[in-house]
Amino acid sequence: QKEVEQNSGPLSVPEGAIASLNCTYSDRGSQSFFWYRQYSGKSPELIMSIYSNGDKEDGRFTAQLNKASQYVSLLIRDSQPSDSATYLCAVLTNQAGTALIFGKGTTLSVSS
Amino acid sequence: KAGVTQTPRYLIKTRGQQVTLSCSPISGHRSVSWYQQTPGQGLQFLFEYFSETQRNKGNFPGRFSGRQFSNSRSEMNVSTLELGDSALYLCASSLGGKDEQYFGPGTRLTVT
User: Fold this and answer.
1) Local structure of B110: helix, strand or coil
2) pLDDT at residue B2 above 90?
3) B93 touches chain A (CB under 8 A)
4) Model pLDDT, residue B43
5) B105 touches chain A (CB under 8 A)
6) Which of A34, A43, A49 sits opposite B105 (nearest CB)?
7) I need a surface site. Which of A79, B30, B45, B98 has the fewest CB within 10 A?
8) pLDDT reading at A37 higher than 90
9) What is the dihedral of CA A44, A100, B20, B55, to 10 degrees?
């Protein structure tokens, strides 16, 4: 079982819709979870961090964490074509210490 | 506050050569981590430096090494380059390592 798993996509949504991106992780002791956005040819950009169970909202983005189910998700409301990118889920696990463990990423395409 | 900077942005090297990449973290950040990104393997952790000491290391051969200076700037060295070392090398800085990591623009290394 891979440590951090994401559906590779592509996930296609129309402009204005809600995009839902999902991530599961295997280390039950993981404490810190991050979502990065990466445009083609660019480096990852941190968009959300979440450390405790529940929801965390920042503008159009909401991160959701369920440690019991080992599941973290990112919702993007009112999706815009500029949101089209690859979204990377990253986890700091107890085993890996300071090393971020990344999923392979989900490609999101927002059509106008 | 200035972001993470990396130099050079692009490099073309020949098999067998060595290369040194540089990273300047965000002011006040003491932890610098290095990652390799390839289409096949995704983002993989190389190593992390904190207060001039390598604190964490990923599963890469000894040809990959690094160091950190007293001003927190870091360098990464790859010796005896192989074709498979062609990748985007990313540096990330954080306050202490187990918190939010911010990536630089990366160095695109091509080995021919």
Assistant:
1) strand
2) no
3) no
4) 97
5) yes
6) A43
7) B98
8) yes
9) 150
